[in-house]
Amino acid sequence: MRFRLVGFYVVALWSALLSWLADAQQPIKLGMSAPFSGPAAQLGLQFSDGANLVFDRLNAQGGINGTPIQLVTLDDGYEPLRTVENTRKFLLEQQVFALFGYIGTPTSSAILPLLRKHQRPYLAAFTGADILRQPDDKFIFNFRASYREEAATQARYFIDQRQFRRVALLIQADEFGASVERWYLAELARRQLQPVAIVRFQRNTTDMQNAVSQLKEAIPDVVFTVGTYQPLVKAIELGQQNQFNPVYSVVSFTGIQQLQQQLKQPYQVFASMVVPDPHDTTSEFVRAYRDALKAENKQASDIGLEGFAAASILVSAFKSCLGNMTQTCLMQQLPQQRLYDFSLHYQPDTHQASHQIFLYQLTPLKLLKI
């Protein structure tokens, strides 16, 4: 009888140990829906590459107290209906701990009802739109500066410093375009100006002939643009072919590296960015990113740097929740984190950590003083 009891306890203890080990090895799953194919593919690919530099290094060192982080990705092609489908899978089938690094305003807008219903943490989306900066949505954490701040920076440089008065808008016709256009118009109105033209184009298209014709007729000094890199490259190239070469200004979402790589000189393009030049090694933050890149056969990029930043903050917050790995703890700890020498000042009303904007000239890449 005694031997049977001992055997029973041994089996019970062994089963408990195996169960504990299995639980300890279960990864913390993060769901990321993003374009990994189509005209905006590099946005998703580079953001996830930058984030995985952090996650892979952490996992190689044993994870969070033995628990790895797994970034689960699904391709949405930058189309909102596919983003909704992917998000349902993450929430209802894969039971991810949080949603991370989603790409875009129309995609984020499409899933807001799901987010508000499930209250799953929605972290570091690649968009500066106001829809993710509402006071009541406490499940959201934004790393990057807003489109409002980008529009204000561009207006100060082009209108106040360079005294441009003929401003045209080239706008992607969706929630992304509307979210930035609103702030461009506000900055112009503040200076008693109106755009000489507002020209729209469809998301995920490169048919820009009509848009360029309309812009050329307006004779702008500067064109404020809202779109991804491929249609903007096409628009600038078509303008060059038709002796139309105004100054262009793009926002951070565009994909600055892709834009610069695909354009042929001469062109006058400026970009507002929410992270510094990924080649600027005077920054401790950039040096950390480039050190992590050394083991990978990948190029440095502003989008990769933003993914690296978002993942670094997230990992730091996870470490602060050791012994209390809950979504509540994570959301409480995220605003407390630091990012090397990169300044963060969390604002609870907008759930936003950074307010830094860098304005660069792309020919060559040169930081401008505003």
Describe this structure in words.
Belongs to the leucine-binding protein family. This is ABC transporter substrate-binding protein. Residues 27-363 form the Leucine-binding protein domain. The protein has twelve helices and twelve strands. By secondary structure, the protein is an alpha/beta fold. The strands form two sheets. The chain has a seven-stranded mixed sheet with strand order 7-6-8-9-10-11-12, sandwiched between helices. Strands 2-1-3-4-5 form a five-stranded parallel sheet, sandwiched between helices. Strand 8, helix 8 (229-241) and strand 9 (247-250) form a beta-alpha-beta unit. Helix 8 (229-241) runs parallel beside helix 9. It is globular and about 60 Å long.
How many domains, in number, for the residues? 2
The spatial strand order of the largest sheet comes to 7-6-8-9-10-11-12
Number of strands: 12
Write the CATH architecture name of the largest domain. Answer: 3-Layer(aba) Sandwich
What's the total helix number? Answer: 12
| Highest-level CATH class of the largest domain | Alpha Beta
Low-confidence stretches: 5-13, 15-23
Structural class computed from helices and strand pairing: alpha/beta
* Cα end-to-end separation: 84 Å
Estimate the mean pLDDT confidence.
Answer: 92
- Shape annotation: globular
What percent strand?
5-15%
Cα gyration radius (Å): 23 Å
Largest sheet: 7 strands, mixed
SSE pattern, N- to C-terminal: HEHEHEHEEHEHEHEHEHEHHHEE
Supply the CATH superfamily name of the largest domain: Response regulator
CATH topology of the largest domain: Rossmann fold
Helix content: 40-55%
InterPro entries: Leu-bd (IPR028081), Leu_Ile_Val-bd (IPR000709), Peripla_BP_I (IPR028082)
Pfam family, one: Peripla_BP_6
Protein name: ABC transporter substrate-binding protein
Family: Belongs to the leucine-binding protein family.
